[in-house]
Design brief:
Blueprint: H1 2-17, E1 28-33, E2 38-44, E3 66-69, E4 79-86, E5 92-99, E6 105-111, E7 116-121
Parallel strand pairs: 1-6
Antiparallel strand pairs: 1-3, 2-4, 4-5, 6-7
């Protein structure tokens, strides 16, 4: 019985000392505050070129809606390119070399006066 209790204590201590597995530092919540629906949201590494994209959206991201983007273990690095395509417009927005490890949320904004799309990083 003494050895059994010692074993349980040792197991408990090893579990408590094990590193915790936190969410990937690049995972990000994207909030659409542009006033327009988004049909495509893509991330790619700067070395992938600007022709290789995968849509992170399962459906159109309406204004005031958000989506959570999770990165795979195969993905490397903090710096990514981000592309947004609008549902009813042929134009796209591209941000290059965005360090996703520095924040957890991107609030997409559109200024109709300057016709510029930007993001607020949180």
């Amino acid at each position: 019985m003494k050895h059994f209790l010692s074993g349980l204590i040792a197991i408990g201590l090893s579990i408590a000392a094990a590193p915790s597995f936190a969410a990937d530092a690049r995972n990000v919540t994207v909030v659409n505050e542009t006033g327009y629906a988004i049909k495509f949201l893509g991330f790619n590494a700067p070395d992938d070129g600007l022709d290789e994209w995968e849509n992170e959206l399962d459906k159109v991201l309406q204004n005031q809606a958000s989506t959570y983007v999770e990165f795979d273990d195969d993905d490397e690095g903090c710096v990514w390119n981000i592309r947004v395509d609008w549902q009813n417009y042929d134009e796209a927005v591209l941000w290059k070399n965005v360090n996703l490890c520095k924040f957890t949320a991107l609030r997409l904004r559109y200024d109709s006066g300057t016709k510029t799309t930007s993001f607020l990083a949180e």
